[in-house]
Amino acid sequence: MTASLEPSAAVNTTAHARLPDFFIVGHAKSGTTALYEMLKQHSQIYMPDVKESWFFVPELRSPARRGNADRHPHTLEGYLSLFQDAKPEQRAGEATPSYLFSHDAARRIAEVQPAARIIAILREPASFLRSLHLQFLQTNVETESDLGKAISLEGRRREGKDLPPNCTRPQALLYSDHVRYVEQLRRYHDVFSPEQILVLIYDDFRADNDSIVRRVLRFLDVDDTSAIEQTDANPTVQVRSPRLYGLVRSLYLGRGPGSRRAKKVIKALTPQRLRHEVIAIEHRAQLGAPQPADEQLMLELRHRFKDEVVALSDYLDRDLVGLWGYDSLG
Length: 330
What we know:
By secondary structure, the protein is an alpha/beta fold. The protein has two domains: about 5-235 and about 295-330, P-loop containing nucleotide triphosphate hydrolases (Rossmann fold, 3-Layer(aba) Sandwich), CATH 3.40.50.300; about 240-285, no CATH class. About 45% of the residues lie in helices and about 5% in strands. It has helices at about 5-15, 30-40, 65, 75-80, 100, 105-110, 125-140, 145-150, 155-160, 180-190, 200-205, 210-220, 240-250, 255-270, 270-285, 295-305, 305-315, 320-325; strands at about 20-25, 45, 90-95, 115-120, 195-200. Helix 13 crosses helix 15 (about 270-285). The longest helix is centred in the last third of the chain and has 16 residues, at about 270-285. It is globular and about 50 Å long. The model is unreliable at about 1-15, about 235-245 and about 280-285 (pLDDT under 50).
């Protein structure tokens, strides 16, 4: 995909293909996976098995994603094939949290699907960054285990310095850029009408999955009375098949010529998702349980991002200053 997809080209290319009707654009660690899983249950909604296509953010893709065209298509034709099984009466959608972080995803989406409906989920900045940092550690995106130190490296990392070995997504490690909430929302409001955008607050989703999902269903103009199984808004990874997990782990994470041959067999016989799950769980085990939050750092982050929370409260016409406890900072 080029940096700018001309609307006329998109219309010609997609004249006989199924366009997605809605996009869950982010943020990560804010309930997007739970929302995706819950919407996927609805008979009037179609969402592909690939949760994150990354199609509209080619500049943020890691080499692994760039090399996997089946799950992360490079062409518009390949991307639209993700929705080819959607029925005419269904709403088709996808969820890629990095779309909110991206400077260009909103414009790119609008060029392909100007009628799209957009769903964003926002979380209190300090807890969001702590959770995001933990995820980056678990997935080897980040190697600095101290969140405060990781944030202090932003200036040098903007210059390409102090990046983790084999770093493939240096933009993601600019933590403060993830909390430019008003700027991120404005990019979508610049190309979509207010009626096309739904902004949710993570606290509401955590408190009552069901009512928020019903609200989303109404926003998508589908039946909001269907039974939906509630999902943890921030689920932990669990092994679906312990016996198969043990076999794959012992071979796939092994060393030596025999292990290399076994890896080839495993790749041919097991789903990529399971192999990635094994590696992720192994890395979590090595990291151990997350340490308690550094309350002094959390306080410093809240002071740092208070102006953003005030601006977001004004932008959304909702008292997030009070909801998130920023009114007691002094």
